Amino acid sequence: MKIVNKILLIMFFAVFVSNSNAASLEEIKTQAYSRAKAITSIQFTSTFDDSLILNKERDNRRNQGRIEYLQSGKRYLIKSVLSNANEDGDNEFVTAFDGQRYQVFSRNTKELNFKKTELTDLPNRFMNPLLVMYSWLVLGSSKAAQQGIVLSTYADVKNQDLWDDCFKNAILLDTNDSRLQRVRFVNSYDGVTTDVTFDRDQGVFPVDVISKSKQADETFHVDHIIKKDADGEIFYFPVKMTVTSKTVDFEMTSTLQIDPSTIDVNTVYDNDIFTIPETWADTVADIDEVNSGRGMIRPSKFSVILKACFGILGAVLIIVSIYYKSKQCQRAT
């Protein structure tokens, strides 16, 4: 009888712990997601500094850059500057979505392209501090791996399906700090195991991510976090973080920083700000029209007008030059 009682007690305790863990996981998901979803618009300027070692060539490369990020709902305007220590000059481009058209502008080539379906010329998540700390959403989701879902903008962070899929098979791990909660996400599709530490005192924000797979080991760690007040609500932002990634082919270490003075939360923006002006470009192309054969790459209206003005100015200068030359000839005779 005593043995039976012990077995029942152990079973009860196991069920109790299991239910308790499930409740804690649901609480973490609810609180963390509600914080992320509460950001309706976000603006900041950040920098990144990458050190990349290619293992086979033992070649060291360094990339530096800056991002000016603005997003409101699904609309965004992202200005990016990328510098490569092994190359001359900077690569500058602007990507935008105004709710109807995706736009990409290269400052180097003065080309503006737009289309109705999403363009892929977006800064990758390793360049964006806010997306970096939510990388676990795609690393820990079997659905993301199967469907090729990536984090392109902050709107993707608020994808409820990713959160539900990650927490579906999540495991609550022990920590020695009551304010920290560590959760393990197991991606059964491609065998990625990701441990994420959430900080209760920092709005249940993910402050540490360790991801391991057969292909790569990745870590994302928040070195410094600040809080920002917007209409009486407190938000937390990682203003400095370190990223490491190690594969068979390369090793990378990155430092990302957000300028705290540039952070603006939940401000209302006019739609015009998410439209790249044609006046910036020399050539403009509607990619949908070009691909269908109905359209072609054309000079921008501004460049046509500018060239026309230069043409008129050149003609005037020629006429003036001829006039003065004829006057000089008359004086000489």
What does this structure look like?
- This protein is of the alpha+beta class and 333 residues long.
- 30% of the residues lie in helices and 39% in strands.
- It contains eight helices and 16 strands.
- It has a 16-stranded mixed sheet that branches.
- A hairpin with a 4-residue loop joins strand 8 (180-187) and strand 9 (192-199).
- Helix 1 packs antiparallel against helix 6.
- The longest helix is centred in the N-terminal third of the chain and has 36 residues, at 2-37.
- The model is unreliable at 4-19 and 302-310 (pLDDT under 50).
Quick one: biggest sheet?
16 strands, mixed
Number of strands: 16
* Assembly state of the chains shown: single chain
The secondary structure category is alpha+beta
Shape: globular
Helix count, DSSP H or I runs of 4 or more residues: 8
SSE string, helices as H and strands as E: HEEEEEEHHHHHEEEEEEEEEHEH
Give the rounded overall mean pLDDT.
83
| Amino- and carboxy-terminal Cα gap | 135 Å
Provide the helix percentage. Answer: 25-40%
User: Could you tell me the strand content as a percent range?
Assistant: 35-45%
What integer value in Å does the Rg equal? 27 Å
Low-confidence stretches: 4-19, 302-310
